[in-house]
Amino acid sequence: MAPTDKSAPITRELPILPIRNTVIFPVLAFPINVGRKKSIGAVEDALSNERYMAIFAQKDPAKENPGEFDLYEIGTMIKIIKHVKMPGNKLSVVIQGMNRIRMLRFYEEGNSLYAQVEVIEEEEAYGDEFEDKLDNLRKIAQQVFDLSPQIPTEASFLVRSTDDPSDVADIIAININNIDTEEKQELLATLDVNERVDKVLALLQKEIQVLELSNKIQSTVKGEMDKAQREYLLREQLKAIQRELGETDDRQEDLEELKRKIKKVGMPEDAEKVAFKELKRMARMNPSAAEYTVSRTYIDWLLDIPWSHSSKDNLNIQRASDVLDEDHFGLDKVKKRIIEFLAVRKLKNDMKGPILCMVGPPGVGKTSLATSVSKALGRKMV
After folding, report:
1. What band does 8 get if pLDDT is binned at 50, 70 and 90?
2. Which of 91, 98, 93, 133 is nearest to 119 (CA)?
3. Collapsing DSSP states into helix, strand and coil, what is residue 156?
4. Which of 196-200, 263-267, 297-301, 334-338 is the most confident on average?
5. pLDDT (average), residues 261-265
6. Helix axes 153-161, 165-175, angle to 10 degrees
7. What is the distance between the alpha carbons of residues 204 and 196, in angstroms, rounded to a whole number?
8. Cα angle vertex 209, ends 205, 212, to 5°?
9. What are the residues facing 116 on neighbouring strands?
């Protein structure tokens, strides 16, 4: 699709098509979807006349019914090439960019938005210096196109084959990925071609840096993935060879043994899920890695917890009091608090994980008191 001839009257009355999250440049043809009631009305008005419309980008894409001050002043006059009705009372429209336009007056007519617009005639740029700048623009654009696989190959051909500098700048602006709607609108509103070429050059330089960094990151990630896949394949081949030779893989046996222990120890479902997750993580590690030892220690610790073993408390308050008095002289307040704690346990036997915390400097009797409590309850002291 080649750029079009830009001949049009100085001013026109045109139906308006507000557009969100994009900017239409006066070059090439584009498909767009139309769904808002007033937009469909504007398209129908254009189809019943000369098929010409004015497209203006919205400042706020969330605005459902934009008014005059919700639209940018500079827009594009387009011609409808083709339209197809879609399900849900929507239209798919192929439009051809024609000219830059300036909104002079905004008004509503029937179910459509209208504007009186001024067609902007762009001044041509000349001179050896500008031609050198244009050649540089084409060269850098080609570098961007080569780095970005998402850009269609037609864009490269159009940039090389188009003579009009304004069209060249617009075609490149359309195909730059990492610029937002406001930056594209600024390029549309830059009427001086020389200045617009400078702005596009600056955006291309930024785009090259982004693409080169992105490609570098992708290459690094791909290299790491290839390395991981290669190691996995080699490990699987090694296992197959060892099986054929009748040799055992001690590490694999160790992992299988841990797996059996996790299933056997009787963990709650949540704890078992964590243990298997850590085991799977450990299986992917090199045994010489420091993290391997950390994971192994964590799994061993989970296995050592007596998940399915418990003892029955002997909540005999008199016995507990006798044991505390026998083992400790004095400490009346502490012993009284322990007896109170045990009495509450006896009255409310559905308590979950009650904790009695003893605090004090070394040698005051914390450990010996805990030993007495365990002896009184018939619990194992750890």
Report:
1. very low
2. 98
3. helix
4. 196-200
5. 82
6. 160
7. 12
8. 130
9. 13, 105
Strand partners, 105: 116
Integer Cα distance of 25 and 12 in angstroms: 18
Q: What are phi and psi of 89, to 5 degrees?
A: 55, 45
CA distance 370 to 116: 91
Q: Binning pLDDT at 50, 70 and 90, where does residue 186 land?
A: very high
C-beta of residue 32 within 8 angstroms of C-beta of residue 76: no
Report the C-alpha gap between 277 and 364 in whole angstroms.
Answer: 43
Tokens at 230, concatenated? 């290669």
Amino acid at site 119 = V
- Please name the residues in contact with 18: beta carbons below 8 A apart, sequence gap of 6 or more: 36, 39, 55, 56, 57, 58, 66, 70, 71, 113
What integer pLDDT is reported at residue 2 of this predicted model? 45
Burial of 24: CB neighbours in 10 Å, binned 0-12, 13-18, 19+? buried
pLDDT in tens, 278-292: 888 888 777 777 788
b/e string for 143-155 if b means 16 or more Cβ within 10 A? Answer: ebbeebeebeeeb
Distances in whole angstroms, Cα of residue 382 to Cα of each of 359, 370, 371: 18, 10, 9
What span, in angstroms and rounded, lies between the C-alpha atoms of 327 and 317? Answer: 15
Residue 3 burial (C-beta neighbours within 10 Å; 0-12, 13-18, 19+): buried
Closest of 153, 140, 158, 149 to residue 208, by C-alpha: 140
* 159-178 pLDDT per residue, tens: 888 888 899 999 999 888 87
